[in-house]
Amino acid sequence: MTETLFPPRPAPVVPVTGAAGFPVARIFCVGRNYAAHAAEMGHEVDREAPFYFTKSAHALLQSGQDMPYPPRTEDLHHEMELVVAIGAQARDIALADALEVVLGYGCGLDMTRRDLQAAAKDKRRPWDTGKDFDNAAIIAPITPAADVPALASLPITLSVNGAVRQSAHLSDMIWSVPEIIADLSTLYTLLPGDLIMTGTPAGVGPVRRGDLMEGRIGDLAPVVARVV
After folding, report:
1. Across the beta sheet with 155-160, what order do the strands follow?
2. How much is the pTM?
């Protein structure tokens, strides 16, 4: 092994219910995967194919930890999402086989510096500073796929200080989990350790210091974080 100048950063690890931890390699995010959310952001739904952006694995924050309000923004938004944990390699995988590579599912928050994202959009620049920053991916413990029956029928909600902000069903997703995996595997070789955040329903909005966020999807472990 080549000697390194300093120790490599360890991979962030997400707990898995009843199993060892899940070391996170990459985080893929699906944009505008709920029609009502696309509409509230002023966009038409693109039904030809999903589109994606990424977050660094080191943007991950464990559920239950405080989220420091990030710098250089005055408009931090919550986006509640289903997270898919990949447990096997997938390249050009068939739609019918896509769920075979899923290790499990979890609740996640795609936190967004909305003002920086909007400024980037206006200048036709990448969204990185609005989407990929410290603590921008808040992930709850993963539930094994075998313990999650009837996934598409599950409700997805996000409350801030006890008041519901987002409420929908996973069946409202434009692109289903198998469709996302099959499509994404034509762009990347998906590998164990990859996470996919599958998009957010309508109702996104700002949070401020002191706000407590709690997101739920059926009986999956909730994602909880306070902004400090």
Report:
1. 163-169, 155-160, 212-217, 223-226
2. 0.96
